[in-house]
Amino acid sequence: MSELLRIAAYCLLLSVATAGVAADLKPWTDGPPPTLELKDLEGRLHRLTDYRGNVVVVNFWATWCEPCREEMPSMQRLKEKLARRSFVVLAVNLGEPESRIRKFLTQMRLGIPVLLDPEMQAAKAWNARILPASFVVGRDGRIRYRVVGELDWSSDRVVATITDLIAAK
Asked: What's the number of domains the chain is made of?
């Protein structure tokens, strides 16, 4: 089974197994983040290290993943709530053709950089096997939280957690 099909199967199983159960921010204790260096749809290179000093949500997703599509608007709302603050969302797409991603983005307007992981090497390095998978990186470049599954990123609780990370020295 190809890696993309395996991830799709995990995503389907997760959505069935967690129906009605909200994902949550889980504290991270597994060490430093792997390297993240990917190009966006315009060919610009984005490195996680370039965002040091900001809180960064690294979200692994795909257009075929229903929970991924469901949580995207809440990520956009979170970005808008924290506008002009030290905060960034990076949406890493797993292995899909650019044409499919662009079509999806015409339907769902996002002001979030969409990074391309065509060979899914970043997803493997970050151990993002079930989608959506998100990591919250503190201003110091360390992963603080991980989320597996759909999360309402614009909820008061999540906004407060992110705001506390932004305020941390």
From this structure: 1
